[in-house]
Design goal:
Helix content is 21%, strand content 24%. The chain has 214 residues and is an alpha+beta fold. The chain has 2 domains: 52 residues, Roll (2,3-Dihydroxybiphenyl 1,2-Dioxygenase, domain 1), CATH 3.10.180; 133 residues, no CATH class. A 5-stranded mixed sheet has the order 5-8-7-6-9. The chain has a 4-stranded mixed sheet with strand order 1-4-3-2, with helices on one face. Strand 6 and strand 7 form a beta hairpin.
Length: 214
């Protein structure tokens, strides 16, 4: 891999500032990002757009129906967004998100350990893929023989993660439900129907290790 000169690199402080999504039903989308994920609404444009953030930022997420009111998700095989990722500050916050999703019975597509990070995967009401993750400290990132970052996909240790959740999961209520598949019926927004976990895992073949220890 050819290294870029400093003058050719984008600034190291650069961040992805926000994601702006076309949605079918604005209020349905706002309810998900506000009530399920916990973002706060910071601004609205009439009944056609809304902006949400964490920590008082102007917006991390934009939602609008300008071209998409009542619309359907793009069919499989289309180009576009695969997923966007929400970075939480630490494992404790990731555990809080996981517990909240389980309490609200929101379908979780997967939970993975990528070496550099730990992540859970889900979809919003419009079928947009979302990854919510916590980074490990850089010094713990796995490296290859040449010093390159060597990410992988293994099953996330849910039991260990949930020890950090508020009030924990002493009875295994959430981890057992996740592991035994009681909440593994997933909504296929593209076809407006429920799909089985077996079908979902087939479609997400690169996540083949999500549901079993490796």
């Amino acid at each position: 891999m050819t290294k870029k000169k400093d003058s050719e690199k984008i600034a190291a402080e650069t961040r992805i500032g926000h994601v702006h999504l076309k949605v079918s039903d604005l209020e349905r989308a706002v309810e998900f990002y506000r009530d399920v994920l916990g973002f706060e609404v910071t601004a609205r444009i009439g009944d056609s757009a809304a902006f949400l953030s964490a920590g008082g930022y102007h917006h991390h997420i934009g939602l609008n129906t300008w071209e998409s009111k009542g619309g359907k998700a793009a069919p499989q095989g289309s180009t576009g967004l695969y997923h966007f990722a929400i970075l939480v500050p630490n494992r404790k916050e990731l555990a809080k998100v996981f517990k909240r999703l389980m309490e609200k019975k929101w379908p979780i597509e997967g939970a993975s350990d990528h070496g550099v990070s730990e992540a859970i995967y889900l979809r919003d009401p419009d079928g947009n893929g979302i990854e919510i993750y916590a980074d490990r400290p850089r010094g713990q990132w796995p490296k290859g023989v040449k010093g390159e970052i060597d990410m992988y996909t293994k099953a996330l240790d849910i039991e260990n993660l949930m020890t950090l959740a508020p009030e924990g999961d002493e009875e295994g209520k959430y981890t057992d439900k996740f592991k035994t598949g009681l909440l593994e019926a997933h909504f296929d927004a593209k076809n407006n129907k429920q799909v089985s976990s077996k079908q979902m895992k087939k479609e997400l073949g690169h996540r083949k290790n999500i549901y079993k220890k490796v």
